[in-house]
Amino acid sequence: MKSSATPQSETIHLIGINLETGIEIQRAAYKDMRISILVNPNNNNNNSKNKFH
Question: How much is the pTM?
Answer without folding.
Answer: 0.34
